[in-house]
Amino acid sequence: MKPVIFGFYHISRRTKLAVIALVAAMFLTTSVVYVQAYHKLKPIYEVPTSKKVLALTFDISWGNQTPMPVIEILQQEKIKCTFFLSGPWVKQYPDIPKRIKEDGHEIGSHGHRHINLSTLSREEIKKEIKQAHASIKEVTGVDAELIRTPNGDYNDEVIKAAEECGYKVIQWSTDSLDWMNPGVDTIVERVKKKAHPGDIILMHASDTCKQTTEALPMVIKELKKQGYEFVTVSELLKEADRTQ
What we know:
disordered N terminus, two-stranded antiparallel ribbon, alpha/beta, TIM Barrel, 9 helices
């Protein structure tokens, strides 16, 4: 049989068929990977709505110096937010989470240990979530239903474990970057430019974030100027229900 000429190489019919089979196998494998990636479980980043509402959210894992000034600012501005609290922090500073509840803010979980849950088995993840849940319940009386995982880390197992514990996993669509302490003006401008209807904004009230308290009043002022209404994450999720 006459070989097929391909470039400078002579390829036999048998080799040609083998190459075609290899390419087909690669295409099939790529397609499977694409499908798996497409169907990967996702947390909630934002809510589809045309209404000018958004949720300010705060993670707290460390310290007792930053939380109270943040709470006082929110009280002065008459704004209700969602706080994601770590279990050990709640037990260490019980008066602060109690105040958060008294002021009418929503309390969610930020997990137990501040580790990447995706490195654990599903049962280990559920243990972490349940430990934090018990701590929050003991101190505040709240049965939290929302969780922002430590470091925002997740995979399918994390989301499945959280859902099996009765939680919705919440991320964010605007990161203020206050955790990087990039400068007050940078924090304010970033939130100002990125805010949009249905937005979930990530901020922090841990002591490691040293510019949040100075930036927060300006962030609120700019968002109010744009006509936004501040709601909790659970209230924001209801806006999505109304649009469907």
